[in-house]
Amino acid sequence: MTAAKGDFSQGKVSSLSLRLGLPIMLAELVHVLYNIVDRMYIGHLPKPEGTNALVGLGVCFPLITLIGAFANLSSTGGATLCTIARGEGDDERAGRIMQTAFTFLLIVGGILMVLLFVTAPWTLTVLGGNEITLPYALDYFRIYVVGTIPVLISLGMNAFINSQGFPRVGMMTVLLGAALNIALDPLFIYAFGMGVRGAALATVLSQTVSALWVLRFLTGKRPPVRLLGLGIDGRELKNVVKLGVTGFMFKVTNSITQAIVNVMLKTWGGAESLYIGAMGLINSMREIMSLPINGVTQGGQAVMSYNYGAKLYRRVSDGIRFVLLGGLIINTLMWTMAMFFPQPLIRIFTDDEDLVALTIRCARIYFGAFPFMALQVTGQHTFVALNRPKHALFFSTLRKLILVAPLTLLLPSLGLGVEGVFWAEFISQLCGASACFTTMYFVIWRKLRRAAA
Questions:
Q1: How far apart are CA 141 and CA 151, in angstroms?
Q2: Is the C or the N end of the chain the one with fewer CB within 10 Å?
């Protein structure tokens, strides 16, 4: 069995991680295009429509993040356990895990689609929509949410392609959809005059193509473990959810904190607050800046999981070291860009001079401790890769729910005003990331090094 077929017990750990990670990183880049391309086209509509529509999309972010959270139940829990089972030589169990994760996504997707569509007017108002921005938010989100099931399939099941040693195929999943999205956006938004509704429709159609590609591959003859139908194994579902809840909570806590942030920005920044638009642009920057380290960590996580199942602990330790060093280098470079050269990136999305200036000022606070996030992702992905759900769950909630959310509510009233919302992220990066990595070192890494000696 070769590395190309998913055997990660041979070859240099760093080379294997890069071989997996680079296509995953490119796939992540293309996936980010789904949302940022919408924002690019919408943000360049004539003023004030473009700016108002961009703020309206910012109101939708918490709910879009929430949908992605359910995909993480499958990609974080299911794909990781599937990889560990393959490392143990149990392909039959790996297949049951994949089938269970897929069926679960279909059920959850149907429930989410109906629930979010019906409650959209109320929830989007609570999340910061007003009489100006709410119509744009509703026009976008109600079309987007119709595509919930394809979104969950393309995001949640693509991990089963990457983790079996086919990262290029996984890259094609999102490349096909993104290419279609880029082509359809100007057609629907401008040529057909659909505005934000056209952007949402283009995204739904593109995600549907991606989902069909995923299913075609996973049910074909190439992967070692194939998707053979529908069905839920109760025991495997419990295991998938138990481990996957860490990725789920990471997204859910993001959604909750984004909601709190939007409310506080509206409260402290004024009823027509440009601060919500600025935070939306900062979220776009964060997605782009996180791409390289996401590729490194996901490639390294697959290698660590397989070798942990095979009890090759030295290779697991080498994987942790690779993720840490690679992450520190990458995030320091991204921090330099955010601190000293933010304007070119922001102008991709808007030409509104007031919004550009505001976003630059806030981004320098928000990303002030970004290199520390390399410690967070190293610890977090190690906990997931080695099936440590309790630690993974705790640290997925610590930074956002225990630190960011209370600080977001507290700091504005302590003299920092609306910018206290952005300082909350800075403080949480320092404290949360340090705590996560330190715990991982003493609980896992030090013991692995001793076992491998």
A1: 13
A2: C
